[in-house]
Amino acid sequence: MHSAKQSNVRFVKIATQFAVDDVVATAEYYRDIFGFEILGYFAEPPVYAMVERGGVEMHFGEADRTDRDASESEFRRVGFDAYIWVDDIEGLNAEMADSGADIIEGPVKRVYGSTEVVVRDPNGFILVFGD
């Protein structure tokens, strides 16, 4: 097996892309509930949206309505869709609770040392915020 060569390249950002039924409603939810800024939309009516908060950028593309709902797929039954590291988990939890976020769990201190808050977005995607 080939191993990756160590280098000085530093990964600095990640953008997820979720397929959703309504990109505008999703972007507005991320703005209003999770505190993201809407970066923009593509096409009219919009079929793609981008939001950002700090170094975290998330993209939403319109789902093919003929496909089975992403939240119903087998792999969606466990785990999470995105893990986002933050520097103030308690502050973020308070902010999300005040804005009406669908907080599933947390903040909770895990055995591996991270304190986490688990939320569900309006499309059923599970986001974990941790420190």
SSE blueprint and pairings:
Blueprint (H helix, E strand, L loop, with lengths): L13 E7 L2 H10 L4 E6 L5 E6 L2 E7 L19 E4 L3 H11 L2 E8 L5 E6 L5 E5 L1
Describe this structure in words.
This protein has 131 residues and is an alpha/beta fold. The chain has a single domain (14-64, 80-130), classed as 2,3-Dihydroxybiphenyl 1,2-Dioxygenase, domain 1 (Roll), CATH 3.10.180. It has 2 helices and 8 strands. The chain has helices at residues 23-32, 89-99, and strands spanning 14-20, 37-42, 48-53, 56-62, 82-85, 102-109, 115-120, 126-130. It has a 4-stranded mixed beta sheet, with helices on one face. The protein has a 4-stranded mixed beta sheet with strand order 5-8-7-6, with helices on one face. β3 and β4 form a beta hairpin. It is globular, with a radius of gyration of 16 Å.
Major β-sheet profile: 4 strands, mixed
> How many individual domains?
1
Mean of the pLDDT scores? 83
CATH topology, anyone? 2,3-Dihydroxybiphenyl 1,2-Dioxygenase, domain 1
What Rg is obtained from the alpha carbons, in whole angstroms? Answer: 16 Å
What is the CATH class name?
Alpha Beta
Give the beta-strand count: 8
Uncertain spans, ≥5 residues at pLDDT below 50?
A: 67-78
Distance between the termini: 33 Å
So how many helices?
A: 2
CATH superfamily: 2,3-Dihydroxybiphenyl 1,2-Dioxygenase, domain 1
Question: Within the largest sheet, what's the order of strands?
Answer: 1-4-3-2
The arrangement of helices and strands along the chain is: EHEEEEHEEE
Proper CATH architecture: Roll
> What general outline do the C-alpha atoms trace?
globular
Instruction: Tell me the helix content.
Output: 10-25%
Structural class: alpha/beta
